Amino acid sequence: MDIVFLNGKFIAADQATVSVFDRGFLFGDSVYEVIPFYQEVGFRLDEHLKRLQYSLQALRIELEFDWPSMLSELVSRNGGGSLSVYLQVTRGSAGKRSHHIESGLQPTIFACCQPIRDIYHEGADQVDGIKVIATADLRWHRCDIKATNLLPNILVLQQAKESGAQEALLLRDGVLSEGASCNFFIVEQGVIYTPPQGSGILSGTTRELILSLSDWHGIPRQETDITYERLIAADEVWISSSTRGVVPVLQVDEHCIGNGLKGALWKRMFELFTRYQHQLITGE
């Protein structure tokens, strides 16, 4: 997309520049969100902005800003439709490189858009099941902060790609935490299980919606530790993220999940997601 937002201005992407001394550039001293918009309506927008505020507070970045107005205008300036908005806030620039945080820095605010599929409009038949790998979790211990320090995630996603997979699930101390760019779930005998919330995983907005939809529609679910052995023996495995929704996993490493097809409970959850998205957009 051509138009981005940078520090109070909507400008052409090729005209946007930041200081080489910006702490987001030098140290990854920044946080971000990726927010899907369908027909110019933010999907779980309030939840994304609450998580953004949580991350900012964790980094002690003080900032007051009218996020909804800016995001809506950015989406509109880029043609509307189905877009994801990448929003990043850095601590700013002190005009030099220094590990120490100086007081009074002005945060850098950047946002851009790119097209996404409206998978809920396309329907469950158009969602392809995926393969994932399981590998060691090399990240820091504050994964509840949505920070831009993503090098471990990038490396394991490349490992997955080289293995013919689309995602990597992460193992630490014998249990799985989450994916490199997603949360995950397993299904055993009609019950949905996912790892418990804590500093080791991100509070995924789509994860929270799956749990809420389960509660609203009487689908049993539990938050519990999940081992690799339990993962590969599950009836169904799903991943979830803001831009992908809920996606069935058909293979983990060399292990086929269930009968190798999209599961019945995943289809039910996708139907509930579709209904929720329709109500959000139309107000019906």
Give the helices and strands as they follow along the chain: EEHEEHHEEHEHEEEEHEHEEEH
Q: Which fold name is given in CATH as the topology of the largest domain? A: D-amino Acid Aminotransferase, Chain A, domain 2
**What class would the helix/strand composition place it in?**
alpha+beta
End-to-end CA span: 31 Å
CATH class label of the largest domain = Alpha Beta
Alpha-carbon Rg, integer: 19 Å
Instruction: Outline the biggest β-sheet.
Output: 9 strands, mixed
Poorly predicted tracts of residues = none
Level-2 CATH architecture of the largest domain: Alpha-Beta Barrel
Number of helix segments? 8
Average pLDDT score? 96
Level of helix content? 25-40%
Overall shape: globular
Q: In percent, how much strand structure appears in the residues? A: 25-35%
* Quaternary organization: single chain
CATH superfamily of the largest domain: D-amino Acid Aminotransferase, subunit A, domain 2
Number of strand segments: 15
Write down the domain tally.
2
Can you give a write-up of this model?
With 284 residues, the chain is of the alpha+beta class. The chain folds into two domains: 3-116, Aminotransferase class 4, branched-chain amino acid transferase, N-terminal domain (D-amino Acid Aminotransferase, Chain A, domain 1), CATH 3.30.470.10; 124-282, D-amino Acid Aminotransferase, Chain A, domain 2 (Alpha-Beta Barrel). It contains eight helices and 15 strands. The strands form two sheets. Strands 7, 8, 9, 10, 11, 12, 13, 14 and 15 form a nine-stranded mixed β-sheet that branches. The longest helix is centred in the last third of the chain and has 19 residues, at 264-282. The chain is globular, with a radius of gyration of 19 Å. The model has no long low-confidence stretch (mean pLDDT 96). It is an enzyme of class 4 (lyase). Keywords: Aminotransferase, Folate biosynthesis, Pyridoxal phosphate, Transferase. It catalyses: 4-amino-4-deoxychorismate = 4-aminobenzoate + pyruvate + H(+). One of its GO terms (biological process) is folic acid biosynthetic process.
